[in-house]
Amino acid sequence: MVGADVTFRPGADVSAIAALAPGDEVRLDNSWFLALQYYHRHQVPSADLYGWKRFRDPAGEPLHPQRPMLLGPLLARVSGGAPTGTFHGTMIMLASTMDVEAYPWSADWYRQQAELALGDRFDDTFRLWFMDHCDHNPTVRTVPAEAHVVGYEGEMQQALLDLDAWVASGIEPPGTSEYRVTDDNQIELAAMPDERRGVQPVVSLMVRAGAAGAASEDQVAVTVGVGMPVEFTVTADVPPGAGGIVRVDWDFESAGTYPVSSRIDSPRSHLVSSVTHTFTEPGQYFAVVRATAERNGDPDAVYGLVPNLARARVTVES
User: Is 96 helix (H, G, I), strand (E, B) or coil?
Assistant: First the structure.
């Protein structure tokens, strides 16, 4: 039955849907949707866009039949112009390592274009900051997603402040992120904060069976019994010039709610903090810790808060 609260997709024939009655036969055709899943194979762009290299043969030719017109350049011109790498002024570019809509390797591609176009001026006018555990949107849209990704709104706010200081006062922002592009076109960030650079803290989480001081070793996964205490230890480091850690929040059951916070008496660029938690039900738990940095080490700041997270697995047996 079609009611007033029903939402239709763009282009749907509402009158035809409203005319449906019990017993009518309906033919569903998803051929266009299926074709779209493979469309990119038939739209292989120039060889410098290396994200499509898997669709080329050893001689560099496309593996699949190609459509006569590339849509990518057309869409780019409509949305923001052809990305040549040439720009006037200064730029801080942000890119998310877990972006499912604008794949992160494309930011590396643009960095290469900018380096070619700017030459000796490149280091004086361009920064690329990769944001770990971030998706396409600046804020996290659902509570369960909070256990897997962090928002980058605070990093974007800090980038705008740094860009203003760079232009108005000549104060250089933190350096471009250090990373490598893997064989499958993923962005792998440097492990150490002084190498990774940018402004996002580097966070790791270790776990051990037993309370503080237990004889067991720190691990990224542990198996314990119901009611047995588990010690979690977070290490958070802020890249040079990016401030200090002002918040540490814990979500032991990966619900995305972070009900426990560790007190930070003195914000610092290097922080190690431990908490103990006891699981009362058997199961697989992926505990999450989220550490947040702020440029001036202000725990009461509203803007410019830059988070990152880490996870560890706890298997609880009955």
Answer: strand
Q: What does the angle CA 255 – CA 104 – CA 125 come to, to the nearest 5 degrees? A: 120
Query: Do residues 153 and 139 make contact, with C-beta atoms less than 8 angstroms apart?
Result: yes
CATH of 201-317, one of 1.20.59.20, 2.60.40.10, 3.10.300.10, 3.40.50.1820: 2.60.40.10
pLDDT tens-place string over residues 43-65: 999 999 999 999 999 999 999 99
Residues in Cβ contact with 252 at an 8 Å cutoff, skipping those fewer than 6 apart: 232, 260, 277, 279, 285, 287, 288, 314
The token duo for 94 is: 């942000």
| Tokens encoding 203 | 């966070």
In the three-class reduction of DSSP (H, G, I as helix; E, B as strand; rest coil), residue 226 is classed as coil
Q: Identify which of 165, 274, 288 has the alpha carbon closest to the alpha carbon of residue 210.
A: 274
| Neighbouring-strand partners of residue 276 | 231
Whole-prediction pTM = 0.85
Domains of the chain by residue range:
24-82, 86-195, 201-317
The pLDDT tens digits for 151-183 are: 999 999 999 999 999 999 999 999 999 999 999
